[in-house]
Amino acid sequence: MKKISMLLIILIISMSLFSCSSKSTKDVIVASSFPIYDLTKRVVGDKYEVETFTPAGVEPHEFEPTPSNVAKLHDAILYVENGLGFEKYELDEEIRNKTLTLSEGIEVIYSNHLNGGENTKEIDPHIWLSLPNAIKMMENVYNKVKIIDPQNESYYRQNYLNNKILFEALDSKFASELKNAKSTYLATTHEAFGYLCHEYGLTQISIMGISTEDKPTPQQLISIQEEINDKGITTIFSEELQSEDFAKSVSETLNIKCDVLNTIEGLTDSTSASDYLTLMAFNYQRIVEALC
Question: What is the pTM of this model?
Answer without folding.
Answer: 0.86
